[in-house]
């Protein structure tokens, strides 16, 4: 995919539905009684993997142009899949579904693509095993393929070493099938969509600080869900609007849940001109975001804000390369175990464009302000890397050629069309 410089990005955009919320809506809808209707569902490959898995376990899921209808069968209504559950490229599908599968009365096997086969699953195998689950990594390397023999589970308290919503959600979902209360404490608060949505479906999930607890055997009832725009997808247009001269972009109905909205704070700290309109606090908070061209300066990003912007760090790294001064990103070791090693891949590719950047054990140091030039970028089949460099290509001189740029289909199939729609 070749990207050339653009100016004057102007217009209004509704970014696709939130990936985390779309996954959860299908999963919880499948475990609920009655029909769950989901509008603005993300039709990205990852969420389609979740749909495929639940269809294989006997759930009728209909798609039409405007919504998804999940005809749930209740907490104990899934049936044994007759072949491997294909999780594709999706960490969220793998880790959340494992918590559900651990408490079923059947055996299942999960497998996916080459990337997911390298991602760490011990982080869910450990707490699930202490709940009494039987979950085995077939190649004994702590990765998929995983074989899960459903068992009777016990409630536990789990002190998670990582701030990960996927780990937290996996344990809470297994907790629905346990014999007592299950709780998870994490070092920093990660995204809380599971807690919010499970309660909306009728479960009893309580949160105190960084601990979330669930009462077992809830009755979940089918609900209507309007998925807000994904702030992780909005991030590319926030960056493009701030950095491209003469731009003014209105992003409609973006999810601004505080456990996800760290990028807005970082942009403000960097000097961004962003205005929020039409804020709504019903359910998942949303707002329209007006983005205007700004001159940005470097900042430091560390500690508790990291989980609230973890998927936006590739885009932030590019923004930092165009900003004046130094940006330091720390406490983000998790970037190494995403769809690619996002520290190494961002550093290598930004260096190819002429940036002054170094990788560290848990982040990056970026001395911004050097003029960047076109280059061939290896996306490593990582959607967030591809989109971040597409934005870099709209700003720098020369052509940015992104190898395997179509991997954006994982979370944003129409990304390139949306990017080009703003410069007419
Ligand atoms: O729960 C979720 O929906 C997600 C949690 C995060 O992963 P971790 O739980 O590994 O931090 C994030 O990076 C991922 O894109 C989606
Ligand atoms: C890390 C991501 O997703 P997942 O963990 O679901 O593969 C992401 O979308 O950036």
From TrEMBL:
Active site: 311
Major location (coarse): cytoplasm
Protein origin, superkingdom: Bacteria
InterPro entries: Enolpyruvate_Tfrase_dom, Enolpyruvate_Tfrase_sf, EPSP_synthase, EPSP_synthase_CS, RNA3'P_cycl/enolpyr_Trfase_a/b
Pfam families: EPSP_synthase
Stored CDD domains: EPSP_synthase
Location(s), subcellular: Cytoplasm
Any one GO molecular-function label of the UniProt entry: 3-phosphoshikimate 1-carboxyvinyltransferase activity
EC number per UniProt: 2.5.1.19
Enzyme class (EC, first level): transferase
Coiled coil: none
Record's catalysed reaction(s): 3-phosphoshikimate + phosphoenolpyruvate = 5-O-(1-carboxyvinyl)-3-phosphoshikimate + phosphate
Alphabetical GO biological process terms: amino acid biosynthetic process; aromatic amino acid family biosynthetic process; chorismate biosynthetic process
UniProt: phosphoenolpyruvate binding residues: 19, 91, 119, 166, 342, 384
Gene3D superfamilies: Enolpyruvate transferase domain
PANTHER family hit by this protein: AROM/DEHYDROQUINATE SYNTHASE, PENTAFUNCTIONAL AROM POLYPEPTIDE
Assembly and binders: Monomer.
Function statement: Catalyzes the transfer of the enolpyruvyl moiety of phosphoenolpyruvate (PEP) to the 5-hydroxyl of shikimate-3-phosphate (S3P) to produce enolpyruvyl shikimate-3-phosphate and inorganic phosphate.
Annotated family: Belongs to the EPSP synthase family.
Protein name: 3-phosphoshikimate 1-carboxyvinyltransferase
Species: Blautia obeum
């Amino acid at each position: 995919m070749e990207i050339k410089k653009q100016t004057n990005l102007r217009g209004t955009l509704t970014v696709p539905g939130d990936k985390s919320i779309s996954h959860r809506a299908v999963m919880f809808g499948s475990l609920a009684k009655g029909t769950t209707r989901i509008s603005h569902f993300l039709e990205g490959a990852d969420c389609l993997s979740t749909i495929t898995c639940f269809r294989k376990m006997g759930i009728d899921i209909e798609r039409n142009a405007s919504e998804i209808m999940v005809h749930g069968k209740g907490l104990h209504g899934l049936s044994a899949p007759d072949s491997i559950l294909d999780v594709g490229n999706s960490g969220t599908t793998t880790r959340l579904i494992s918590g559900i599968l651990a408490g079923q009365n059947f055996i299942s096997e999960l497998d996916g693509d080459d990337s997911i086969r390298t991602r760490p699953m011990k982080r869910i195998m450990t707490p699930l095993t202490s709940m009494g689950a039987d979950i085995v990594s077939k190649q004994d390397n702590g990765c998929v393929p995983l074989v899960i023999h459903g068992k009777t589970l016990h409630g536990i308290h789990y002190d998670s070493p990582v701030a990960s919503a996927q780990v937290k959600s996996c344990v809470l979902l297994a907790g629905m099938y346990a014999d007592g209360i299950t709780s998870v404490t994490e070092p920093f608060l990660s995204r809380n969509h599971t807690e919010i949505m499970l309660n909306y479906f009728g479960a009893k999930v309580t949160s105190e600080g960084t601990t979330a607890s669930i009462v077992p055997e809830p009755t979940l009832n089918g609900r209507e869900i309007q998925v807000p725009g994904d702030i992780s997808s909005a991030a590319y247009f926030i960056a493009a609007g701030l950095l491209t001269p003469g731009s003014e972009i209105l992003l409609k109905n973006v999810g601004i849940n505080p456990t996800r909205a760290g990028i807005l704070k970082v942009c403000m700290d960097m000097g961004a001109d962003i205005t929020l309109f039409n804020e709504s606090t019903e359910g998942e908070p949303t707002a329209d975001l007006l983005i205007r061209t700004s001159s940005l300066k470097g900042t430091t990003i560390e500690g508790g804000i990291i989980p609230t912007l973890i998927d936006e760090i590739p885009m932030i790294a590019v923004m930092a390369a165009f900003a004046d001064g130094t940006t330091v990103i720390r406490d983000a070791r998790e970037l190494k175990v995403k769809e690619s090693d996002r520290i190494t891949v961002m550093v290598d590719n930004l260096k190819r464009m002429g940036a002054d950047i170094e990788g560290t054990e848990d982040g990056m140091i970026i001395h911004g302000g050097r003029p960047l030039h076109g280059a061939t970028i290896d996306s490593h089949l990582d959607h967030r890397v591809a989109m971040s460099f597409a934005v870099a290509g709209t700003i720098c001189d020369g052509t940015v050629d992104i190898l395997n740029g179509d991997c954006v289909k994982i979370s944003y199939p129409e990304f390139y069309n949306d990017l080009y729609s703003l410069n007419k």
